[in-house]
Amino acid sequence: MAITLSSTDYDELWQAANPHRGESDREDLAEVREIVPPRLGQGYVQQIQLRGIGLSLFDYHLHEDVCLISATDSPDSYEVGFNLSGNRSGKRTGENFLEWGTRPVEPPRRQLDYANDPVLKVDLHIDPDHEIGQLLAHGIANLSPPSQPVDAGSAPWVNDINVITPAMRLVLEQLWRCPFQGQTRRIFLEAKCLELIALKLEQLSTASSQTKELRPLSADDRDRIYAAQKILIDQLDNPPTLLELARRVNLNDYKLKVGFKQVFGTTVFGYLHQHRMETARHLLHSRRFNVKEVAQSVGYANQSRFAAAFRKQFGVNPKAYSRS
User: Fold this and answer.
1) Over the Cα atoms of the chain, what is R_g?
2) CATH numbers and ranges of domains, the chain
3) Can you tell me the distance from the alpha carbon of 178 to that of 195, in angstroms, rounded to the nearest whole number?
4) Do 66 and 112 form a contact (C-beta atoms < 8 A)?
5) The 3-state secondary structure of the chain, one letter per residue
6) What is the distance between the alpha carbons of residues 268 and 258, in angstroms, rounded to a whole number?
7) Contacts of 307 (CB under 8 A, 6+ apart)
8) Tell me, what's the pLDDT at 151?
9) pTM value?
10) 206-263 per-position pLDDT tens digit
């Protein structure tokens, strides 16, 4: 049974668990770790204040499902986020999002966060008045008309959800595993945040040019595309053919090909290859498997072909990567 909370009650729980919450502008609180309220779950959110960017690293799980009823106000939002794990705030595992401008006025919304989905997430809250925010705003303005009309004097609302690309995932892992301390750490994290912003802006630019030629997908077709994605991930070592995959999600092969590229920005088997390489990199990083075992687990019977594919993707041999 889900715990139902208003946004006010939710904020009060976090404030009670973290008395210094909201004071990150103080010099001695430039980086703070907020614990998840014990009533809700276990874990933390790391808040790091950089130049023009508030970086949030989420790592927690909930004891029970939480249903959050949001307020009716429409605050400005200038945020880029990456859901590595956990379906949170309407974004799925493996998706990134951008919210920019003044949110249109909406009725209260019900947001459900699930206890069985550990949350691993990166958010970048961007100061629109800072040079970084102004650069991003200029890049967004050059892409396409705003997605929603807003009142005069407000910033046009742009809301985009897309897939986390392999390039983004690599930067996110580097950000999570930052080996530095002090000012070197801050410089490193800031550089990685800027890299993520650049990758998101490039993704927006590519999507903008594609949508001019494509019809929007229906909600049902989009769900079928995500079902196809799950089948590919579950059968990584022995994936179905394109026709078999289309049959299993009840789409024709043409709609599957076009829709898959529209949702994930790559072809069905381009995505399969990327996910194989990312899975292989994760297994090698764990140092629990040798190169041959990793190759077989991601569907490569020939170790030499796996090594060539890995080297092409990441610029290093799998054996050298596992040692490093």
Assistant:
1) 21
2) 3-211 (no CATH), 219-323 (1.10.10.60)
3) 15
4) yes
5) CCEEEEHHHHHHHHHHHCCCCCCCCCHHHCEEEEECCCCCEEEEEEEEEECCEEEEEEEEEECCCEEEECCCCCCEEEEEEEEEECCECCECCCEEEEEEEECCCCCCCEEEECCCCCEEEEEEEECCCCHHHHHHHHHHHCCCCCCECCCCCCCCEEEEEEECCHHHHHHHHHHHCCCCCHHHHHHHHHHHHHHHHHHHHHHHHHHHHHHCCCCCCCHHHHHHHHHHHHHHHHCCCCCCCHHHHHHHCCCCHHHHHHHHHHHHCCCHHHHHHHHHHHHHHHHHHHCCCCHHHHHHHCCCCCHHHHHHHHHHHHCCCHHHHHHC
6) 9
7) 291, 295, 317, 318, 319
8) 44
9) 0.70
10) 776 665 556 778 889 989 999 999 999 889 889 999 999 999 999 999 999 989 988 8
> How confident is the model at residue 154, as a pLDDT?
54
Tokens 């009725």, located at residue: 107
